[in-house]
Write a structure and sequence with these properties.
This protein has 11 helices and 12 strands. The longest helix has 16 residues. The protein is elongated, with a radius of gyration of 21 Å. Strands 1-2-3-4-5-12-6-11-10-9-8-7 form a 12-stranded mixed sheet, with helices on both faces. The relative contact order is 0.17. The chain is α+β, with helices and mostly antiparallel strands.
Amino acid sequence: MALESHPVYNTSLWNSLWPDNHAFIRPAGREVGSRHRPSHKRNMAISIQATRSADGLRPVDIARDLPQIVDLLKTVFGDTLDGNEQHVFGDSGGRAANELYYRFHPSAQRLLNGFVWQEDGRIVGNATVLSTKSWDRYLVANVAVHPSYRRRGIARALMRAITASIQSRGGRVILLQVVKDNHSAIDLYRSLGYTYIGNMVTWYVMASRTRQIPELIGERTHVDVCKLPDGRWREAYELDISHVQADLNWPEPLQPDAYRRTLWRKTSDFLNGRFYEGWAVLNSGNQLAGLATIAGEWGRSHVLTLRVRPDWVGSLERPLLAKALRRLPLLPRRNVRIDHPEADEITGQLLRDANFSVQRVLTHMRLDISR
């Protein structure tokens, strides 16, 4: 079936558990790793009528399924994992030690909310459900079917089980991500009622290969880029959500206080090895017209964001990005990434000029469950 044509990043577990987006500028608590997961996050207990046969669809039993699920995810997503994700998967050798490691690893515990498909006593399919801060909003992650068992309807069965399970608990919205060129997976999701939201591109550059770009080209007027004032955090939030649709922020919509830099947040960042810098452009009416941020933490890539008001598109992207790039050599030497809407071709070209390359393009989809 559709989803089974080739590995699906959609919903790769790692992209769901460790999103970069704006998480660095929220209150401390993965990225991909062990980033802040809200303490009030609930586990979702999934129940489904047991099958008479040992094979087929059933809920995850983490006590016995974990090693096989990890092996399946390695098989399906292994070629697309970055260094951080490979570290969590661990070495393929020393199974006893690895099983103990996974059982206590916080990301592995997220695998327990979902379903598996078993054939001949072997787990060949898996899909995970993640809850969010909103009681009626859920995410689908790491839909995976072993290559030898694809095109048998396993992925469709997993997705239908997830939908029924969420609907029985009053869920109203399900979101997922899928690699843009995985057309068979997208066709499957559409056949199940999912609609297209938009595409987000992950751009990436190694620290040693970042290229500076000029702030001005030709006779364009100089733009003053200043430090983002702490008191403009509400404006920054409004600007951000006008640039990026809410459901394109994964896994949670941007929080209204995302740009608020309280003393407590600054102290927490310092104590936890995180940093954050923001810059802004104010228009003649002293309104926030554009902003750029750079955030990071120990052991992680720097994360950039770039936001411009619709009426200033084409004028502020270059000076804001140029400012951020000039700051990078003064910060700890690390690789850099930015997740940005694919539709913003202006920023895309600037990132290419700065030597960024496309790491992946994810299509975001949504299912509204009828009551």
